[in-house]
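2024-03-11 09:14:02 INFO receiving multi-entity request
2024-03-11 09:14:02 INFO entity count = three
2024-03-11 09:14:03 INFO echoing inputs for audit
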Amino acid sequence: MPEGHSVKRSANKFEEFFLNEPVKVTSPQGRFTDSKILSGQKFVFAQPKGKQLFLHFEESIVQIHLGIYGKWSYQNGEPKEPVGQVRARFQVENRLADLRGPTICSLIDADTHQSILQRLGPDPLWDDSDNKLREEFIARASAKKVPIGQLLMDQGVISGIGNVFRAEILFRANLSPFTPGNLVPNEVLGAIWDDSVDLLALGVRTSVMLTRENFQKVSVPKDERYWVYKREGMACRQCGNPVSIAMMAARKLYWCGFCQK
DNA sequence: TACTCATGAGCAA
DNA sequence: TGCTCCTGAGTAG
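2024-03-11 09:21:47 INFO inference complete, emitting structure
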């Protein structure tokens, strides 16, 4: 589930497995040709920003983006033969991580790394004790006439939000996804930021996306987790009117036309 | 077994 | 806006 919370979890897990260790890196599938350069280097730290993950080794930085399909799997104990299409395998004695189906898995230089970080909007999971990130989000979102539903998916405006959180956060804000960013009051944008901080942090803790009050347990069945996401045509949980669906910037958008004005 | 769909995003037109 | 890449889960038959 590659929205920001799961990338953060991957980063934590990767550090738990490999911090300060020289890591053997291979590409069983053969498509990560730089694995040889990386192999044997000590892993220093993992840096997630939104949906991007940067793995810092002594001499190299690896950029990873899971896209829709990408997945990590971790194993303890005796390494097993790779199953399926494994793009990259990271291993130390008795621990390994397999990466499958990422959109991006490549070595990048320091300049590229910096330019990607700058291009990305603020990440609600980063420390923001001085509210700078919150202000940056408000400034970026309120500067555009693009609908807010599109802005929340724009990684240059806020990083880490995907299609599920987009729909749910706007529902929770009672805000129509079609409202242009520059017409959304700053206090509403601030509330959207605060809600993103809470929901992503909850996602990091629980590993699943939970967006309904009183449903903050992992055991919540999938079909009860969301307010509107994937509920088109079904009764809105709040007002009973049917949940709407439309395409926005080539992605499915779910909202309640009665609750979200 | 075959087909469809997905939590993403870059690119060409 | 539509096409493309990548992989696996779910579903229809």
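2024-03-11 09:21:48 INFO post-check: Chain A has seven helices and ten strands.
2024-03-11 09:21:48 INFO post-check: Residues 67-71, 84-85, 87, 100-103, 249-250 of chain A lie near DNA strand C (CB under 10 Å from a C1').
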